[in-house]
Design a protein that fits this description.
By secondary structure, the protein is mainly beta. 0% of the residues lie in helices and 40% in strands. The protein contains no helices and ten strands. The protein has a four-stranded antiparallel beta sheet with strand order 3-10-5-8, with no helix packed on it. A four-stranded antiparallel beta sheet has the order 4-9-6-7, with no helix packed on it. It has a two-stranded antiparallel sheet with strand order 1-2.
Length: 110
């Protein structure tokens, strides 16, 4: 992905990212605990496209709309998924299944 001086190399991102109108992004690898772990959005005030990858080889990760919110994604061990956040998701959290997992992610504004 390259736009307005931002370069991000992630082989799994589709070329459709060139249609995103806003600037900025956040990309991180975060250790997800077995309790709610806030997904750091960096400087983003709103979220649109997301790409998540569970780096664990055994455990899944649930992604929720917010703290104490609804689970909207189950990311199986080793899986990577591109998606678009729904309007009800503004402060997502993640929870690892049995033990801590690493979550790699890339989030763009709408």
């Amino acid at each position: 992905f390259a736009k307005n001086g931002i370069n991000e190399q992630t082989n799994s991102l589709p070329s459709l990212l060139s249609t995103i109108a806003a600037n900025g992004y956040t990309a991180k690898t975060l250790s997800i605990a077995t309790s709610e772990t806030t997904i750091n959005l960096g400087g983003l005030s709103s979220i649109g496209f997301g790409w998540f990858r569970n780096l664990d080889s055994t455990n899944f990760i649930n992604i929720k709309t917010a703290a104490s919110g609804t689970i909207f994604m189950k990311l199986l061990a080793g899986w990577a998924l591109p998606f678009y956040f729904g309007s009800g998701v503004t402060a997502p959290v993640a929870i690892a299944d049995t033990s801590a997992c690493l979550l790699e992610y890339f989030i763009l504004p709408p």
